[in-house]
Amino acid sequence: MKAPRGSLQHKLVALMVLTCTAVLVMAGAGLIAYDHVSFKETMARALGTRAAIVAANTTGSLAFENPDDARQVLAALGKDPSMTAAALYDAQGRLFATYPANLPASAAPRAAERRSIHFDKESLVAFEPVVEGGRRLGTLYLRSDLQALVVRERVYALAVLFAIVGSVGVAFALSTTLQRGITRPVLALAETARHVTEKNDFSVRAAAATSRDEIGLLTEAFNDMLGEIQERDLEIRALNRDLEVRVEARTAELEATNRELESFSYSVSHDLRAPVRHIAGFAELLEKRSSAGLDDAGRRYLDNITDSAKRMGELIDDLLMFSRMGRAELCATHVPVETLVADILREMEQDLKGREIEWKIGALPEVQADPAMLRLVLTNLVSNALKYSRPRSPAKIEIGAEPGDGETILWVRDNGVGFDMQYAPKLFGVFQRLHAADEFEGTGIGLANVRRIVYRHGGKTWAEGEVDRGATFYFSLPERKEAA
Amino acid sequence: MTNGLKRILLAEDSPKDVELTLAALEEHNLANEVVVVHDGAEAMDYLLRKGKFEGLPAANPGVVLLDLKMPKVDGLEVLRRMRADKNLQSIPVVMLTSSREERDIVESYHLGVNAYVVKPVAFQEFIHAVKNLGLFWAVVNEPPPGSVKKAA
Asked: What pLDDT score does B147 carry?
């Protein structure tokens, strides 16, 4: 539950402390301003009162023109250190007495006509008419410095500063404590969310909120959401289990079918072949023993019997190989196609005798495939190319490869008899042939094998051709991924 | 022939295959050297001189041709029993079969077969194969000790 920098916790504390500071600074400033004004008023009032009292005390001195007496009265002002100067003028405005006694005449202003109190730059100044029985005897001038004001303001500022600092401290402490009420449920929520994400455990719940505030609602909504996810998760798990069970059952079924198929092909290979072999065998024996007694037609019939039996044997063999190809396990490894093709061509050398062939073999890559099966595919395609280009001299056979989209495309091209594109879909079918048996030999299983093997590798097969203009057979192999 | 001892034991359940095999062997004048049994149990009886073969003098054939698929005891089982028997284990055995099934071939060689011949459908090829076998095992090769020598 440790809060990171810039966290909600810090933000909340900062918010409260800043708010508190701003409010206190404004309040403090207001307070100081108000006090400044009101204290100045108080000072002015006090000086006014004092001026009135002193003026009353000096009426006698002025009336009897006794400056000494007046000086004595003014000297009493010395009791207050803030009094910096005082002066008494007679009715004609002449300086009558001063405080201090040796106040230079320049320091005393001209007597004002009327009573006034005002602040100048550094002091508070008061003029008070000295009156007796309605007769103007003179004017009193008092000057006091502003030391008291300065001191008071300093004290006030200090007090406000202390109040701010103290309050901010308290606000900090309080907000640090109080924000937990907000951040703890939020952090708990975040912690729960992280737990859910990391452990994929939808059974946990965020601690139930104690209050019905926004965070309480959020927690509740979050828990509801978790509940829903958990329910779906359980559903999915149940579905998966169900699916697994079904897959297992299906696999068992498939395995059983496969075993059946295997025993079927096993008995086909043994039992179906035996009578065929017998037909061929006895036909041959018959020919050996009695061919002299047969006419041409009889001999031809015997030949037909032998040929048909032989062909039946080939068909059975091919069908068995085709079925084996579908069942045999794939052992995929890295196969260098270039080496493989060179190998195949070397093996075919015998078949190439007497043929004029222009080979064009491009750069061939390394692919991920079962080597034996890939060899079968390429052998099939190359021998097809050889077979169907037999009428050509020279025959041109091209073997190449090009990268496809996440796959490698390999192709074998010839300039042979080609085929009509409308029959292209039939090319890869079992026992599908586009040529008469006496034109080009074969059972029609080769391309079916090619397609089956390529499909089992996760690839595709297709062909392009034109009658008498040759054909190109393509197949793709998915790009190497780690063997599963 | 006089003592009923033959140089070739052919275990084959199909009479037609027996006839074809004998015809092939006849070409090489070997037909008279063949004793035919019709299943694996009979083959073992012959080799062990049991049952209807009791009383025959003890002597091993020069080569045993075993059909893979036979009733009662199949060719693989006969081969297994022969290889487990001290007296019979050195007799050359050729497995004859219609199938190219890999598991049969693997199993046969695993059990120590000397040759494995897929009976070709074409009779010529079949004759050729049996001839080769006959030549190799019954004529060219000196039979293992204890077997009957070919009458000169």
From this structure: 55
d(CA A300, CA A305): 9
Q: Which residues of B touch A270 (CB under 8 A)?
A: 68-69, 97-99, 101
Query: pLDDT tier at A378 (50, 70, 90 boundaries)?
Result: very high
Tell me the nearest-neighbour CA distance from A283 into chain B, angstroms. Answer: 9
Check CB contact under 8 Å for B98 and A270.
yes
Q: Which residue has the higher pLDDT, B33 or A281?
A: A281
User: Which residues of B are less than 8 Å from A303 in CB distance?
Assistant: none
What tokens were used for A14?
């900062």
For the cut 70, the answer to whether the pLDDT of residue A4 exceeds it is no
Alpha helix (H) ranges present in A268-295? 273-290
Cβ-Cβ contacts under 8 Å for A435 (sequence gap 6 or more): A388, A417
Residue of A225, A186, A228 lying closest to A207 (CA atoms): A186
Quick check: A309 and B121 CB within 8 A?
A: yes
Of the listed ranges A241-250, A339-348, A455-464, B135-144, the one predicted with least confidence:
B135-144
What secondary structure does DSSP assign to A352-372, as a single string? GTT--EEEEE----EEEE-HH
Tell whether B2 is within 8 A of chain A (Cβ): no
Measure in Å the smallest separation between the Cα of B144 and chain A Cα atoms.
Answer: 32
Q: What is the pLDDT of residue A15?
A: 86
Residues of chain B found within 8 Å of residue A276, distances taken between Cβ atoms: 121
Helix (H) or strand (E) holding A130: strand A123-132
CB contact under 8 A, B69 and A270: yes
User: Based on the number of CB atoms within 10 Å of its own CB, is A283 exposed (0-12), middle (13-18) or buried (19 or more)?
Assistant: buried
